[in-house]
User: Fold Glycoside hydrolase family 30 protein from Coniophora puteana.
Amino acid sequence: MMRLTLALSVFAALELAASQQIYDIWQTTWDRDMLFTYFQPNPDPINFVTPGPAASADIQIDDSSVYQTVYGFGASLTDSSASLLNGLKNQNSGSYWQLLDYLFNMTDGANAAGLSYIRVPIGASDFSTQDYSLDDSSGDTSLNDFNINDAPSDVFSVLSDILSVNDRVNVHILPWSPPGWMKDGGTMNGGSLETQYEDTMANYLLKSLQGFKSKGIPVYAISIQNEPENSNPTYPTCDMPVATEAAIGQSLRSLMNSNGFSSTKIIGYEHNWNDAGGYPVQLMQQAGDYFAGVSFHCYDGDVSDQASFTSQYPDKEVYFTECSGTMGSDWWSDIKFYMDEIFIGSPNYGSSSGLMWNLALDGNGEPLLPGTNSCNGGSYPGCRGVVQINSDGSWSLNQEFYSMAQASKAIIPKDAGGPFGQRIGQSVSGDLDWALVVGAYVTTRTDSSQWNRYSIVVLNWDDSASTTWNPVPVNATIEFRGMQASYVFPVGVTTLWWYAPAQSFSVVDTFKHALKSVWSGSLWDLPVYLWSALRG
Ligand SMILES: *[C@@H]1O[C@H](CO)[C@@H](O)[C@H](O)[C@H]1NC(C)=O
Ligand SMILES: *[C@@H]1O[C@H](CO)[C@@H](O)[C@H](O)[C@H]1NC(C)=O
Assistant:
């Protein structure tokens, strides 16, 4: 009897020790009471306990299914964004560094979003002061006049500052157009590349990589053409058929491999969801060996279209690289769209990133390329940046920031220099299964004996927005390795963290071992079982 009591109390102690607890919560609510606000459950951490009945929204986490790594969330550092940020630095450098810290600091425990993915145009885009490429000498096929300093110095100084806050930021570069002289219309604005310049264009991209390197900027990925199905005569764009992108990709890959850029990825397509089963699939058919994957934009189609690509090329990477906010839209409606389609939705459809368009713009969506009709041509409503920087040196954060910050916190490395999070299996069941949209991640450790971090990002959009506004908090159960936690999700976005050993183990097995050792009198073995149980 004594032994049974002892065994039972050992079991109870084991169960407590082996159970996970939610300690860390970030939250953004529909009414903006919480804006990427950090808190710990009060008064105690939330325990995963022996399961009771499932709530009407029951979130199941399946960490035996591990999918793609997510390398980060962020936006594009356009010439306009760089000039506004550098202007802020000149006007109020304390405020500038505070902003960069809040956006990019990825240190564990920092009160910051830890954004880790930045896309940078090569040459002009619709957010530049004028059209320019990095070699505007007509007919210069040997690219003797290529000059990385044709790009505004603000771009490199702000990028360097960002990397000084977070040296893990993944930089992805790409042109909005080849130099005008390589194109049929002789201008960067619209038209298409003359096929005789395919190799010259590959060389131009190699020189761009070398130029960024000379500025101290390591490049994670390069794309060949932004939006190859968009030709617009009012700003840098280029219609580029699949065969042309395939040919440039093949030639660029070999140039990169022989010039010290073999670990830099080439990402194809860079255009809308609606053609996910078309252009990017044909690109992989024609030149798949040279591309690590493809990337998507939001302006046509739906995130579920990503499956038209991933179902045919499950081993290729997918990135989500562009969507722009529009001035005057509803804050909470935007958050719902961004979480459902981009910051939870796109990773759930295989993507390794989630990016908005301009990192920073002013309150009018400027500065915009003079004369362009992009982003409503400078009339209201224009495009909105992730950050708004005002002429008086103040700044504010838009809904685009709060959405990506909630997602970023789920995948940032736990250890300095450690891996980014990987998506794991999740599903929601119950009568209220429609009320929650969930993304789930595991972040492994540099020391594999340390517990992994598990995280979920949850959108509760149960607000009856289309009828009588009625935001309803959802009391959900969270199932993990046979244990259950409960949390009431307010209408908004919530990111939760807990820790667990790398491998699942069964408490019942451990109990059997413990019972056996108590009965056989070999109590000495107990600490060993406990130790192995905790380590998994
Ligand atoms: C949520 O549901 C759990 C059981 O599933 C229950 O124990 C808890 O009291 C509920 N919380 C609230 C605030 O309703
Ligand atoms: C990042 O955050 C950590 C923790 O709060 C802090 O110690 C560090 O100084 C910050 N780094 C920068 C560059 O601001």
Q: What stands out?
A: The chain is about 30% helix and 25% strand. The first helix runs from residue 2 to 18. Residues 52, 55, 475, 477, 486, 488 surround 2-acetamido-2-deoxy-beta-D-glucopyranose (ligand 1) (CB under 6 Å). The chain has a mean pLDDT of 93.
